[in-house]
Amino acid sequence: MTSEPIDPKRQAILDGATRMFLAHGYRNASMEKIAQAAPVSKATLYNHFDSKNALFAAVIAERCASLLQTMSQVTVKSDSVESNLTKIASAAVELIFSEEALAIYRLVVAESPDFPELGQLFYQSGPQTVLIQLEDYFRQLNAEDSFNIADPVFAADAFFSMLKGDLHLRCLLTETLRPCADQKNHLVAQVIAFYMRGILHAKV
Q1: Domain range 1-63, CATH architecture
Q2: Which of 21, 61, 134, 155 has a CA between 20 and 30 Å from the CA of residue 92?
Q3: What are 80-83's contacts with CB under 8 Å, separation 24+?
Q4: Omega before 39 cis (within 30°)?
Q5: pLDDT of res. 2
């Protein structure tokens, strides 16, 4: 799978928007301020994104791009199930415990009461897409008749919930608790071992 060429203007807008959203919040990050931060003209900004909602959704999608690319390469024939899930888990852990992802999560939770559409945008632009892709992978495994996954929706939700666990909540509350590389690798290994025994059931 080859990635599309990066549009420098679009990337500059996304980088500027991310800085503005995290520094000033969604409410106070105007399109004018974002254009100045990029820096691009307002006309260029609106040529790429017709609203602040669309721009915020693109910021979330960019954060999830690496994980989604990993998942797009996972098929029933690409590798063993355990190896595929390890790849997905590693990419997911890198994302959810990154400094920017944690900051965006705090922002969405803080501002959703005043901007209900913000939470919906966040969910649809990242978590929902990731869940659906994993659900589809589990359905493929069932169709191949090698696994008997009774509820692919629950199985996908449980997978990502186990990767977050209590550690994600503590990281949201205390920035200094972000795990190091060894801790993330240990978390992935523990989750995959438990998950393969407790959630997925291979047909004999």
Answers
A1: Orthogonal Bundle (1.10)
A2: 21
A3: 81/141, 81/147, 81/196, 81/200, 81/202, 82/192, 82/196
A4: yes
A5: 43
Q: How far apart are CA 133 and CA 9, in angstroms?
A: 29
- Helix 65-72 to helix 81-96 angle (10° resolution) is 170
> Does residue 122 carry a pLDDT above 80?
yes
Contact status, residue 191 vs residue 163, Cβ threshold 8 Å: yes
Kindly report the pTM of this predicted structure: 0.82
Give the tens place of pLDDT for each residue, 142-174. Answer: 998 778 888 999 999 999 999 999 999 999 998
CATH class of 64-204: mainly alpha
Torsion angle, CA of 157/160/166/170, rounded to 10 degrees?
-120
Q: Which two tokens stand for residue 15?
A: 């980088």
Cα dihedral value 72, 75, 80, 84, nearest 10: 20
Q: What is the 3-state secondary structure (H, E, C) of the chain?
A: CCCCCCCHHHHHHHHHHHHHHHHHHHHHCCHHHHHHHCCCCHHHHHHHCCCHHHHHHHHHHHHCHHHHHHHHCCCCCCCCHHHHHHHHHHHHHHHHCCHHHHHHHHHHHHHCCCCHHHHHHHHHHCHHHHHHHHHHHHHHHHHCCCECCCCHHHHHHHHHHHHHHHHHHHHHHCHHHCCCHHHHHHHHHHHHHHHHHHCCCECC
